[in-house]
Protein: Phosphoinositide phospholipase C
Organism: Gossypium raimondii
Amino acid sequence: MSKQTYKVCFCFRRRFRVAVSEAPEEIKRVFEQYSENGMMSIDALHRFLVEFQKEDKATREDAQKIVDSVKHFHRKGLNLEGFFKYLFADINPPLASLGVHHDMNAPLSHYFIHTGHNSYLTGNQLSSDCSDVPIINALKRGVRVIELDIWPNSTKDNVDVLHGRTLTTPVELIKCLRSIKEYAFVASEYPVVITLEDHLTPDLQAKVAEMVTQTFGDILFSPGSECLKEFPSPESLKGRIIISTKPPKEYLEAKEVKENENDPEKVKASDEEAWGKEVPDLLKDDYKNDLGEEDEEDLDDDGDKSQHALAPEYKRLIAIHAGKPKGGLEECLRVDPDKVRRLSMSEQQLEKAAITHGKEIVRFTQRNILRVYPRGTRVDSSNYNPLIGWMHGAQMVAFNMQGYGRSLWLMHGMLKANGGCGYLKKPDFLLNPNKVFDPNVKLPVKKILKVSNYVYGRRVVL
């Protein structure tokens, strides 16, 4: 128990007891080292920050802010309880913010990228509203990849964003593009990638090209209609907008959502997929058909067969080409030394492929980009375990940002690193072309770290 004294009406003093956690002996010794007569002054706190906390750039003003932030009855310094309270306060994070400190001059394929899935949805995947608000919120959080599903509007003369073949209400594409431009670089100056799921006719593709070029102007990165031989670096693309899409099909009329509703297997999600409980085992034995997946357009060796129907203005916008080549998994994961591309897999497709082609996936992601997205049965906008994607080098582990749950918390925590810029350099073992990492090999533990953690004054060794 701690005793505190305060004045009442400037006339008399009153003493009362405050129930606080008792500071451990280690904390008491540090406090005694930097205090005098039970009080750590502003100057002493400044010395503590520089000498003990190793915050070389800390100033006396920083020390004053700490004193002001700790709610107690002293303004000229900290007593033991105030000092102990400061150590556990948000103003004293466990890791000092280092800002952007990774090497940002490597190709985009060398980074994990903060990626959203169906970024325009406000709630579930079947009946929620489509809006630019969740896009704005994602960009403010540092998300660097925004996904837009683009469809003809009801009169077939303009373009809407919505989740096709569902009851979601649309939002105009131009509204989403304008919001992206306004908020793209609020949280990070590094590039924003817009992935388009295209369901348009060539005339509407030309209209999209006009919208995009007029909205983004000089900040749009447009290398031309040819595939890139190597991806540029995040550093070279600061402040730029990048368009990524598969070479699109001719527009197909949307089917009624009743086709899905009449088949319970298409919309049923197990209890393990419930929000807050959705982190599964890395690998499963059962693989049901993934319904409602984002099918990739088949590509031949010379490019997309439907390119002749593609509006040339639209084609020139595509900086990161996406597509699934003809053939089996081996062909999909084939590395072309002359061009780079983006490949998309559902969480289930990745799980299956990882069993037999783990090293090939890692080799593919050393030069190319792999995007992983939630399976179609996650109608409640829940998420999957991102670790399987990360351990295979997948750069775009696409998440529903509308909800909550352990998977999403893990994603947010992971992408807070490197100053929260939305790009994390992948570890070297995922980038070594001479010795490709095999995720299926069990390796010995290299180091065991013991950590002393103080919880409400009690020491816990982890």
The chain has 14 helices and 20 strands. The two ends are 28 Å apart (CA to CA). The domain at 3-88 is CATH 1.10.238.10 (Recoverin; domain 1).
